[in-house]
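Give me the fold.
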Amino acid sequence: MNSALAAEETRRLDHASPGLKPDFSPSPNGAAKAAPLQTSFRGGVVLRWTWWTLVPLTFVAAVIAAPYFLTHGFLAMGLALERGFAIVCHQRPERSFWIFGAEMAVCSRCLGIYLGAAVGLLFRTSRRMALRLLIAAAAANLLDAMTELAGLHGNWLAIRFVFGLLLGGTTALLISSAAAAPNAREVRL
């Protein structure tokens, strides 16, 4: 029975943290072997499902639903969604994607941030790596905003969307990497 529990524990630890496995075999002189107290994470990427991923996806659904409601006779609901998103987004029509014959409730960068956040919450890496990626994504967004402000390029919706994806994804990755979820299903990539 004891060896069966040890084998199950070893199997569980193999999936949770490859590279750090306690040794349950008896030592030659009968002394106990020391097991590491803390598992280390060496910069790999872990895919894990969490219900929190549905929060940004709900925002994306609301962004898409707003123009649908406006063009299909549900004006009160569409205007309420647009007004709600006006708190966090400038909603300029020239910087927004159009769907169902109306502009989306947020600009292309904000839409990218919401979608990126959903994707970023699916992964986990070391906090140091996640912070570095977030700094790089924020720098790329800042560079894009400054070069457009300086007149070096025009309004590129696709670039804004991609930079929003990067910013949202890396921000959520940092949050996901900092928060421990012991019951989340994880797959090492």
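The CA atoms of residues 2 and 158 lie 59 Å apart.
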